[in-house]
Design goal:
326 residues, alpha+beta, Membrane-bound Lytic Murein Transglycosylase D, Chain A, Glucose Permease (Domain IIA), two-stranded antiparallel ribbon
């Protein structure tokens, strides 16, 4: 009877039915095994084709895993940059010395004289310093147990409140001395000779400290501790002979004093005076900062016999000769 509608019975089923009927007519079980084996062969046939199509898909991933050789990075110097800070920011192996050696032709003979707009080659990625795992902190040592004072000793005889009062008195005395010292330094009083310290902070780098980071081979001034924005004062009365950008010193002010000596203030973030202006001792001339070749906010201070670099003398000895206590 012919099938009706759109769904026709596949002819393959008819052949399979006839084949099964033939097998059943000849004993069945002996011929049923080849049919099962043929069905298994047809089921396994697509597997090699699937494996073959998977290979091209994995190839781009393998290619992407191989990094392309990157060209060395180029860095453009900005205002306030220095070689040591650039090397530290980019984790360069060999530090600023390697950076200077790679760019000596562009920088010139003085590694401290780099200017905004200069293009530096930072080297290939392989020159980056490897990240170091943080060092393990040692386990704290067990605190020793306090022993009771021996009988008859002064500690055993003295009452506890008395010992505590003595310690408190010593602590109060130390705090008073430290407070007086800090107040004297912060006051910035002008001496009888009309001189004062440029800032109230202590000294972080002494005069003539040796090192390769300075083009002269040593530190030509002293570095005073001063956070960015600290008021910087003229150490004595005089006339401003320089006020502006000065290369490695960043923004600087140079003042000529009545005795023929010059005071220089470097790495300023802001200037408050101009060339030709007369200033008095203790007058604000600018704010401290980290401009030029600087590793962080501070005040670089020099005393010179002339207005230019290379005529430095001991700045602390000079200020002390004027009655300034540092």
């Amino acid at each position: 009877m012919p099938a009706k509608g759109k769904h026709r019975r596949p002819k393959s089923r008819a052949r399979a039915r006839g084949l099964v009927a033939a097998v059943a007519g000849t004993g069945g079980a002996a011929l049923a095994l080849p049919l099962i084996g043929a069905g298994g062969a047809h089921a396994a046939a697509p597997a090699p084709a699937a494996a073959t199509t998977a290979l091209p898909a994995a190839a781009p991933q393998a290619a992407a895993a191989v990094p392309a050789s990157a060209s060395p990075a180029v860095y453009t110097v900005r205002t306030g940059d220095c070689l040591s800070a650039i090397a530290a920011d980019h984790d360069l192996r060999g530090g600023w010395q390697r950076l200077y050696a790679d760019n000596r032709e562009a920088v010139g003979g003085d590694p401290s004289l780099i200017h905004p707009g200069l293009r530096l080659t930072l080297g290939a990625p392989g020159d980056r310093a490897p990240a170091q795992a943080p060092a393990e902190r040692p386990a704290p040592a067990p605190k020793p147990k306090k022993k009771a004072p021996a009988a008859g000793s002064p500690l055993a005889a003295a009452p506890a409140p008395a010992r505590k009062s003595a310690a408190a008195a010593a602590s109060t005395a130390g705090a008073s001395t430290a407070g007086a010292t800090a107040a004297a330094a912060a006051s910035g009083a002008v001496t009888a000779a009309g001189f004062t310290a440029p800032v109230s902070g202590g000294i972080s780098t002494q005069y003539k400290t040796a090192g390769a980071m300075w083009s002269s081979g040593y530190h030509t001034g002293v570095d005073f501790i001063a956070s960015s924005g600290t008021t910087v004062k003229a150490v004595g009365a005089g006339t401003v002979v320089s006020a502006g950008w000065a290369g490695a010193y960043g923004n600087e002010v140079v003042i000529r004093h009545a005795d023929g000596r010059y005071s220089q203030y470097g790495h300023l973030s802001q200037l408050s005076v101009s060339v030709g202006q007369s200033v008095s001792g203790g007058q604000t001339i600018g704010l401290s900062g980290s401009t030029g070749n600087s590793t962080g906010p501070h005040l670089h201070f020099e005393i010179r016999t002339g207005p230019s670099y290379g005529s430095d003398i001991d700045p602390i000895a000079y200020l002390r000769s004027k009655g300034v206590t540092i």
